[in-house]
């Protein structure tokens, strides 16, 4: 009996461990280190390396990454599909420093040092070109390709429609280094070498202009222009709301080359020539910084806020999560001058001084494992690339701020710009952002569904064991009683 009980105990323990294993298997991200080596996973796969033979200055992706425009030192505008196949190229009169593509990839704008803005369709047909008064530093196309904003060395911002008609121009008084346009084309932000950041509407009206402490290298805005951010050569990052009210500025410690806002304005990323990537929240608090091996020249927060992409002059592209952890990096053999992330956050493109354009596609399974979030596991693919990708992104609620005089704050910051200590100045109290809740990789109900069969088997086995032991005990008692009767009968016979 003891031997049989031991066998049944072992059986019960085995079923119990089966139960535990099934509970762990309920979470698709509960990994066995012996099966998956996270260090070998690649969050992004290389789709194509497109040779141009010359330094690539600029890249721009369509909303789902199906099309890519690029431009470089060879005076050419290039157009590729998602596999890296060159569909066409066009030679301008000088170096191409800026390109921008519409959401569906049907319209492409480019700016050249021949002082011209060029506008193409997807087939590579030149629809029109317009001469300006100076080299073109920046160009931006609205989501549907209906409007084009551009700025250059003549100090002017030009706003044109899809037919090349000049709707208005704005004279900033000095070279325009960067322009940004809202998705619907209703707003244009610009940063100038005259130290000002401006916001204009689609009629050319100046909504506001704010003086900073230095020339502006980069401007960006949220899709509907609820927030505008800028980075300058006095080491400061600035954040404004649509009314032009100064929210905050921060001194990362060195020349700011690039800034990017999350879609809802809750986070601002900055790339700096101190070899660091910075992330700030809506209140201006620095959440973290991440050091690479050389100047950071380009940075962009993915529209779904799942990662931050950055390009460095250490020849590499980096992808970090919103907590500052590196998910992936890739060496591209030359300084990275430009990068872009598709609106669906599936694709990264980068232009390298090695004379090539690189296209990377997010590996959904590897990305989910590395980020620890099953919500990134593959779902139904996006079928088409059209305006259905437009999102109605609402602004983060905030308490109106009292600027207290931005120029005085800027002067204080400029005076202390050599100090690398953290320096945050805010115009007032801001409301914290409401971030989207993260999707849980498993639930109690999911676990129960996966363990209910082993659990039932375990309970049944234990019940069967008890019933079997009870039967054995009953039979043993009956045998003992029969033996006693038999012995008593033998004694009576003698």
From TrEMBL:
Residues 414-435 are annotated as: Disordered. Residues 76-242 form the Pyrrolo-quinoline quinone repeat domain. The chain crosses the membrane at residues 451-469. The keyword Transmembrane applies. The keyword Chaperone does not apply. It comes from the Archaea. PANTHER family: POC1 CENTRIOLAR PROTEIN HOMOLOG, WD REPEAT-CONTAINING PROTEIN 55. This is Pyrrolo-quinoline quinone repeat domain-containing protein. It comes from Methanosarcina mazei (strain ATCC BAA-159 / DSM 3647 / Goe1 / Go1 / JCM 11833 / OCM 88). The lineage of its organism: Archaea, Methanobacteriati, Methanobacteriota, Stenosarchaea group, Methanomicrobia.
């Amino acid at each position: 009996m003891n031997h049989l009980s031991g066998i049944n105990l072992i059986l019960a323990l085995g079923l119990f461990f089966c139960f535990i294993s099934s509970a762990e298997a309920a979470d698709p991200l509960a990994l066995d280190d012996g099966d998956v080596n996270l260090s070998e996973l690649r969050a992004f796969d290389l789709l194509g390396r497109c040779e141009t033979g010359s330094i690539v200055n600029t890249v721009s992706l369509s909303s789902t990454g199906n099309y890519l425009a690029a431009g470089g030192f060879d005076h050419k505008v290039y157009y590729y599909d998602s596999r890296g196949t060159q569909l066409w190229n066009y030679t301008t009169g000088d170096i191409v420093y800026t390109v921008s593509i519409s959401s569906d990839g049907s319209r492409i704008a480019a700016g050249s040092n021949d002082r011209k803005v060029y506008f193409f369709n997807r087939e590579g047909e030149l629809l029109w070109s317009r001469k300006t008064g100076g080299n073109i530093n920046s160009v931006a196309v609205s989501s549907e390709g209906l409007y084009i904003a551009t700025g250059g060395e003549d100090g002017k911002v030009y706003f044109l429609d899809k037919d090349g008609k000049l709707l208005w121009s704005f004279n900033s008084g000095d070279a325009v280094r960067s322009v940004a346009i809202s998705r619907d084309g209703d707003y244009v932000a610009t940063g100038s070498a005259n130290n000002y950041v401006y916001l204009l509407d689609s009629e050319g009206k100046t909504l506001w202009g704010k003086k900073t402490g230095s020339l502006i290298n980069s401007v960006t805005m949220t899709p509907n222009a609820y927030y505008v951010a800028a980075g300058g050569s006095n080491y400061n990052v600035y954040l404004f709301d649509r009314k032009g009210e100064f929210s905050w500025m921060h001194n990362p410690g060195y020349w700011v080359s690039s800034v990017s806002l999350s879609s809802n304005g809750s986070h601002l990323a900055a790339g700096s020539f101190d070899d660091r990537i910075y992330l700030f929240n809506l209140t201006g608090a620095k959440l973290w910084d991440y050091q690479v091996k050389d100047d950071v020249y380009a940075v962009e927060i993915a529209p779904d806020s799942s990662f931050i992409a950055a390009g460095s002059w250490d020849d590499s592209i980096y992808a970090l999560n919103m907590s500052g952890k590196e998910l992936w990096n890739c060496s591209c053999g030359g300084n990275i001058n430009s990068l872009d992330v598709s609106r669906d956050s599936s694709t990264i493109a980068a232009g390298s001084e090695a004379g090539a354009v690189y296209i990377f596609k997010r590996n959904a399974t590897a990305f989910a494992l590395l980020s620890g979030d099953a919500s990134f596991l593959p779902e139904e693919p996006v079928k088409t690339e059209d305006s259905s990708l437009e999102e109605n992104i609402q602004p983060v609620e905030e308490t109106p701020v009292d600027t207290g005089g931005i120029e005085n704050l800027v002067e204080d910051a400029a005076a202390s710009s050599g100090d690398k200590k953290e320096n945050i100045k805010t115009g007032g109290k801001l409301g914290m952002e409401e971030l989207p809740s993260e999707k849980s990789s498993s639930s109690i109900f999911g676990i129960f569904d996966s363990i209910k069969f082993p659990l039932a088997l375990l309970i049944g086995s234990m019940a069967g064991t008890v019933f079997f032991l009870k039967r054995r005990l009953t039979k043993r008692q009956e045998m003992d009683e029969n033996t006693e009767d038999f012995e008593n009968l033998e004694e009576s016979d003698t």
